[in-house]
Structure to design on (417 residues):
């Protein structure tokens, strides 16, 4: 049987799990067991990571009415993530293990950043679902994205084809996190729910607070130490390049002359760190361009480990620039394929130029020029950055995890003891 045929059998075979999902509604759930997962169970990252760390590190302070301390559990499809967390004193279980299955059936709330299958859709019946999501949207998402063939099938046949894929998608009963009142109607439309909660993002607590002690994976620690030592030893600036995922991402190599760009970085004592989107297909291509002043960070590591270290962010349409506004440093928008992106990939919620507080560049000369300008005068666009920051963050100067824990208690019909 070909790989394509095997994939097709697996895809349609998901329907056999529906009776398991229905039966999972019958299992009583414990209010103090909170389940966390991220990126289809493949990563320890993003908002669930930081809320999980906060809840784990403060679990003795988080008690139900009956006095029980909360039990934050990380559920992963990767054994190495489970072992890493256990070795560091945290509670985690492998998705396919007996204990993993048991706790997926017993957990009162599923906390994730994509879909309930970040943990386990099939065992989630009866649990409260809380989607922390993974970014403030500039580009349209979920039901609002007309380019999404899964959510906008053209005919009945297409509807049938995408049915297994849609099983674990957003539901009106799910709760969704956003960061400001301005964004609330956007999330209500995109997720087809009125259950939108406005707080900050847990992942930003490490940018503006000290209530979470971050837990770095071996590769994150290795990369962070390398960057810190390089900056210290060379007394250089760090520029962080984080492009979003799209079909035209390979155009980067048509625009940038790598030899000339490397010379520019050396002449101006700049470390150029590249962090690709997890879905990017250009991992190998970018790894080949790594040099003395160009450093490629692994796709699967959490980008927030390095964000505060950066003296400048370069992006295009990635939502990470909103979070970078919290530390008020210069941003350059390298939007070389804007028209192609809008026509073939995504519409946007906002007028692009009016919502992107930084210089827009489309060629190498302008990119190099604005890197120097931004590093020389970090106050450029500061008022514009503040204006956008205040629109997308209701609580720009406050940590969020503690408040979200209180929100979860209310969702579970409990209050902090």
């Amino acid at each position: 049987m070909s790989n394509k045929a095997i994939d097709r059998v697996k895809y349609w075979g998901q329907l056999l799990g529906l009776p398991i999902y229905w039966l999972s509604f019958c299992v009583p759930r414990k209010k103090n067991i909170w389940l966390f997962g991220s990126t289809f169970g493949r990563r320890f990252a993003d908002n669930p990571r930081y809320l999980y760390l906060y809840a784990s590190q403060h679990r003795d302070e988080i008690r139900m009415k009956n006095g029980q301390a909360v039990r934050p559990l990380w559920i992963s499809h990767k054994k190495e993530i489970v072992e890493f967390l256990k070795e560091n004193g945290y509670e985690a279980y492998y998705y396919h293990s007996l204990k993993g299955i048991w706790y997926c059936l017993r957990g009162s709330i599923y906390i994730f950043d994509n879909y309930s299958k970040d943990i386990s859709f099939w065992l989630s019946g009866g649990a409260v679902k809380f989607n922390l999501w993974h970014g403030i949207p500039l580009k349209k998402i979920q039901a609002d994205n007309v380019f999404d063939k899964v959510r906008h099938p053209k005919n009945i046949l297409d509807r049938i084809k995408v049915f297994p894929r849609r099983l674990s998608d957003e539901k009106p009963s799910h709760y969704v996190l956003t960061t400001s009142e301005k964004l609330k109607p956007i999330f209500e439309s995109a997720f087809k729910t009125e259950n939108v909660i406005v707080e900050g993002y847990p992942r930003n607590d490490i940018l503006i607070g000290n209530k979470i002690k971050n837990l770095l994976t071996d590769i994150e620690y290795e990369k962070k130490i390398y960057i810190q030592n390089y900056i210290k030893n060379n007394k250089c600036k760090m520029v962080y390049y984080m492009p979003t995922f799209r079909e035209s991402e390979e155009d980067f190599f048509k625009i940038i002359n790598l030899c000339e760009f490397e010379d520019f970085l050396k002449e101006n004592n700049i470390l150029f760190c590249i962090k690709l989107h997890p879905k990017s297909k250009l991992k190998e291509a970018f790894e080949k361009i790594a040099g003395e002043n160009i450093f490629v960070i692994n796709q699967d590591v959490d980008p927030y480990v390095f964000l505060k270290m950066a003296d400048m962010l370069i992006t295009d349409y990635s939502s990470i620039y909103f979070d970078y506004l919290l530390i008020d440093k210069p941003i350059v928008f390298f939007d070389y394929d804007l028209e192609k992106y809008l026509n073939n990939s995504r519409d946007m919620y906002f007028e692009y130029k009016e919502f992107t507080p930084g210089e827009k560049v489309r060629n190498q000369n302008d990119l190099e020029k604005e890197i120097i300008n931004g590093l020389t005068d970090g106050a450029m666009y500061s008022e514009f950055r503040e204006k956008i920051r205040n629109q997308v963050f209701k609580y720009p100067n406050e940590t969020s995890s503690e408040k979200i824990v209180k929100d979860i208690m209310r969702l579970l019909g409990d209050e902090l003891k």
